[in-house]
Fold these 2 entries.
Entry 1:
Amino acid sequence: MPNKPKKIALIPGDGIGKEVIPIAFEVVKKATTLELKAQNFALGSERYLQTGELFPEAEKKALQDFDAVFLGALGDPRVKPGILERGILLTLRFEFDQYANLRPLKLYRKDLTPLKNAAAIDVMFFRENTEDLYIGAGGVLKKGTADEVALQELVQTRKGVERIIRYAFEWAKSKGRQKVTLIDKCNVLTYAHDLWQRVFWEVASEYSSLEKDHLLVDAAAMKMVLAPESLDVVVTTNMFGDILTDLGAAICGGLGLAASGNINPEGLSMFEPVHGSAPDIAGKNIANPLATVLAGAMMLEHLGDNRGACKIEEAVVWVLEHKKVTPELGGMLSSTEVGEALLAYLEGKV
Ligand code: GGG
């Protein structure tokens, strides 16, 4: 019996998201043997500005029927920061319980790193994606006065901490990796990060074949610059994962190559570039589509097509080696020309 088609929800979103998603999805379709059925969801700033709608309930319900979401970016200078990000992006991550944010840091070409004498960088970050300071709990007292008080609550649950730590260890074991490092700030956040400490070492005791390590977040930031090759698999909090993976992207060639997966192992997962909507370069056909293309590879792996995912990564390595890339990576191509170069590689035409 033929396999059922995989239903993909495309959410290009805002700015360069609308340019990179169509390019990357063509590459995904070319690389895979899976039958993909795509449907576009027009969520983002245009709709919000025209109708006031952010994420209607009917669309949330419709998404439950999909196998994956492929998302571009959300953000628009015409909309107050936080409205689109919280109303659409964080809603997707939270309502679909996408608790594992996978962010690979890989140095594909040595000259792309600003670090001197960098060795090979190949780190998988597991960022907890549904708790911490991101849950939106808090409030403001006496707003606008000299006595104003702002509260933003840091919430961690044992269940939330345990599942991301276990997911990181399981992934490390299944991929034959060497070491899992916990990054936290347990010397200062003595309640929330003490929970991370206790749960990490409890779960770690079940994985005798893997080395375990711990770094305080400040020391980890330094290590990522001075000795990134010493990291292998990292598990960390929502906030620290957000910040450290931007640092990680910077040492691996920039946000234009940084991909991510928001995973619910039992539900709907979402794949997106780490970058935002970049309104300053939107509409000019100059955005680098490779981060979204690599997110597409992660989506194929998640859907069970490892071969397709590897083919995409090979194609990305090829365009990087042959400088068939956008100017910030040393090439002279437009966004669509990068897409054409990837397709040509996948079709065996080069
Ligand atoms: N693909 C990640 C994403 O869209 N993040 C939200 C974000 O960074 N928004 C700010 C912006 O696009 O300027």
Entry 2:
Amino acid sequence: MDKKGFIFDLDGVIVDTAKYHFLAWKKLANSIGVDFTETQNEQLKGVSRIRSLEKILEWGNKTLSEDEFNRLMSSKNQDYLNYIDAMDASEILPDVSKTLDFLIENNQAIALGSASKNAKPILKKVSLFEKFEAIVDGNDVSKAKPNPEVFLIGAQLLGLKPENCIVFEDSVAGIQAANTANMLSIGIGEEDVLHEADFIFKDFTEITQEFIEGIISGTTVKQPKNNLSIKN
Ligand code: B16
Ligand code: MG
């Protein structure tokens, strides 16, 4: 079988850390008199820590000094780390471990491609760290998704061409990054949100071994996109 590179996003694909980001951001927002809803939290998925705080301040029409900005960002991260500390393997999303093990048994390369600067401690907490041949996280990139940098570095570390890599992502920006990188994009989540992906599944329980085998053998390929700018 051919060797392909399978690049996994972390939050929303391997584990659901969005709920911990929500609690930590909500505490921060409320402490400066800003409301913060679950809908707003959805818009922070895949977004970097700095950009997330900028967005919260924009929503609340607030400005902060640089010192206060940095102080709040590190206090949010400390709260988030306290939640992570209590994580264990039971928080791995359904059938993710099964998929990783199937790929490893079939000699496929596996990498992580996450915006989070806390990706490594999270993978260690849920006992998945050893399964990844390469880990690219928020500490390694200078350009956030939808820029393809995070996935292109992942492909490079695996020693594979981008067109031989597959990305599992739950955020629109991540799907766009994978498409720009010329990788096969697989959306994990809702079809109406992730419609730019080549394939979309609600979660890993919907992904069959036959589907993965099709990717490895090259019979499952990138979908031609409708060019919406062409009329009639
Ligand atoms: P941190 P992903 C992203 O992870 C999260 O979706 C996003 O909500 C978070 O702001 C970002 O990581 C940065 O996280 O504060 O831990 O550096 O989905 O790219 O794995
Ligand atoms: Mg994500």
